[in-house]
Amino acid sequence: MNHFISPQDVPDLNQLITGGIVAKRNPFADKQLGENKTIGLLFFNSSLRTRLSTQKAAQNLGMNVIVLNVSQDSWGLEMEEGVVMNGANAEHVKEAAAVIGQYCDIIGVRSFAKLQDRDADYSELVFQQFRKYAGVPIVNLESATRHPLQSLADCITIEEFKVKARPKVVLTWLPHFKALPQAVANSFCEWMNGMDVELVVTHPEGYDLAPEFLGKAEVLHDQNKALEGADFVYGKNWSSYTSYGQVLVNDPAWMMTEEKMARTDNGKFMHCLPVRRNVKVTDAVLDSPRALVIEQAANREWAAQAVLKEILLGMQE
Amino acid sequence: MNHFISPQDVPDLNQLITGGIVAKRNPFADKQLGENKTIGLLFFNSSLRTRLSTQKAAQNLGMNVIVLNVSQDSWGLEMEEGVVMNGANAEHVKEAAAVIGQYCDIIGVRSFAKLQDRDADYSELVFQQFRKYAGVPIVNLESATRHPLQSLADCITIEEFKVKARPKVVLTWLPHFKALPQAVANSFCEWMNGMDVELVVTHPEGYDLAPEFLGKAEVLHDQNKALEGADFVYGKNWSSYTSYGQVLVNDPAWMMTEEKMARTDNGKFMHCLPVRRNVKVTDAVLDSPRALVIEQAANREWAAQAVLKEILLGMQE
Amino acid sequence: MNHFISPQDVPDLNQLITGGIVAKRNPFADKQLGENKTIGLLFFNSSLRTRLSTQKAAQNLGMNVIVLNVSQDSWGLEMEEGVVMNGANAEHVKEAAAVIGQYCDIIGVRSFAKLQDRDADYSELVFQQFRKYAGVPIVNLESATRHPLQSLADCITIEEFKVKARPKVVLTWLPHFKALPQAVANSFCEWMNGMDVELVVTHPEGYDLAPEFLGKAEVLHDQNKALEGADFVYGKNWSSYTSYGQVLVNDPAWMMTEEKMARTDNGKFMHCLPVRRNVKVTDAVLDSPRALVIEQAANREWAAQAVLKEILLGMQE
């Protein structure tokens, strides 16, 4: 494996899931693999889980880690080609990516959707440019449209907790007053489409996800109906894709509660975190044994470690 | 030892002091102890000495270090339970602490007093919550009411420089135009109460420290009288505890000077730093051989190393 | 070698250039040298290349690295002596430098010119103070008037790419709407004066560099004439030294283009980065094989490694 930007970069999804489970059992078994290798982690946006779990995973593999909070620590980066750079951005990604690629063996990048211009966000320009100019493998630490390290951790978690060969997995929209990206929801659908699950997505009218991410998922606008018999309920808010970046609905009736969870087949509740308690989901659900949110977060370390290991192995070929 | 939040967590104060002196003599003797262990350092506030000395101590013990400047790097954290999270804080400490505890073997936290609400500050909610939810040992890098790593470094420094079996130690309030927390003063009294010293505290009217921290110390409002025969003069400004968070006095007559130090028994001057020169204490005092402020700061490394070593040993049991 | 603040600290420039080339061939050969040594990197300003390349170089040598973004992470530092510290700066460099020197074996400092007061900037007070009070070697990560790690990387790059025994090197001013420091231009001249090159500096009237940096360089105000027969064209913008910190000219006619480069003797284009494309230099030049900007940036790692190695060797004596 070279890059890890989208599932198209992954030759074998199941191998990565297994890799995560293996890393969890024996975190330091590959500590020689990353010796004298450096990963640079570039954050254009806030991060807690991704920041810590990726550092930890890299250190488990014996790598050195350099963290760069781009806007605080360094120069604003111009992503567009051919422009006259007389604005706020002092450096072009052509130089920045190539330079970072001189010092780092792998580069992780986090750059959220700006939610102003759908075509711009969905073109994933930042990742296109880093892939093109860095000259080293790029790891997606959450892009405008995807969060694959989260999705891999979610796959690992479902593998660990499923009690049926083909569980029913329901992705449900949850209310929130702010406009959030579609990245986690997109990515979750994209990865679930590659697993042996029954995938149902439920959301209010106007919150359809992009078809290329939704794949073969069934869509229902009746949340209660969608939850029936669910083994896993994956909660997430996202802003509208069709009315791009808008908050069309902020209806507390969509909040996840114990009453709703009772409709499931002893279903587990999942969320990528951070989660606003009693806005998206009640304390009762999060504080119950149904909630797998900490297990998911813990699996972020093993997801990152499986990905970095595959990339390091790819370098030896 | 499990946590290091307050002296109540410390089974044996003298063992820690000795541990610091031992670490100073041979900093790398325990480099195997922290192998494959990670400490996460969470800063809600600025830090120089604590940030550097704790990183250094952890690295001396062979640990990996991950630093998180919470407000810059990550999400605002909600500390109160049961609230509807529709405000500025995007993540609850219940999740954040538990998640960080998945990646880190030890968590250090710095969170200053806000000086708005005494009950809130003195409840030490941030540390209560991290202790409750992180699932791993918590180290106090300065809380609303205490700075125990500083106090331990101060104890080590007094042990090193004392020339009498039972020295006279004077904690004197110094003037400052800004409202500062009581944490260092509280903690210093609390730790001095556990050592064999004669403790005198001197401050203007209205600056009484909380009785539970003051302990058996003698209080004098006459600074000159307090200084007579002192072996150690520990200077610090703090805002009022009784008129909570207020600056009642900013009288330069309380500034420490060579003339005042002349009243001591060849006394040493101590301060936790940062110190505003010629506001709290004159250049002449700080630039004289009396000043132990750099020695104190240097001992922060050994204090942190002694604490981390005890916690790491506790994990092996 | 003890400090690396200016070329006056360097016993043998050629040895450092050779050291950089040797490090590039075998980056991990001296990994034992920095064992149990810590470098602290203090940034008062933004940094990409310096931040990453110095971390990387230190890790190649087996050192631990602690990064401090002074204004974000810590306290404002007072640099002047004898002042009453009742302003914004909470800590004096006397304490800060001495304290950091307790924890770090080497300290790197970046502190740009403020461009308000020429005497203040050119006195290099920040570096004077760190040199005086830290008690450990200081490395210049770009000061008000110099950027010697950049210059050393530039020397290495010229050594690698020169095709004549005594190449013609032209430093040309480039247009920019913002006022930038003279540090890179100063330092480049200062280091070129120590190498066997023909050095020509070209800039509009009013942009003369300080004579002590310019040295034996020839100065021309006709850019086209200066470029004739050049082997290396080093582009850089700087604000006026004589009308201190002012932007006197922002004439796009000074931008570097392919047409101008055609006047050289198959000359290479160099720039320290970041560079504003199509403001200082066209895309066509930067995207051509003439451009050595990535090679220069890559050599920053080896320049830093050569410097740190010499300092570490100096500690063993």
TrEMBL record, chains A, B, C:
Carbamoyl phosphate binds at S47, L48, R49, T50, W75, R110, H147, P148, L149, Q150, C272, L273, R300. Its EC number is 2.1.3.11. It comes from the Bacteria. Residues 184-309 form the Aspartate/ornithine carbamoyltransferase Asp/Orn-binding domain. Pathway: Amino-acid biosynthesis; L-arginine biosynthesis. Catalyzes the transfer of the carbamoyl group from carbamoyl phosphate to the delta-amino group of N(2)-succinyl-L-ornithine to produce N(2)-succinyl-L-citrulline. Is essential for arginine biosynthesis. This is N-succinylornithine carbamoyltransferase.
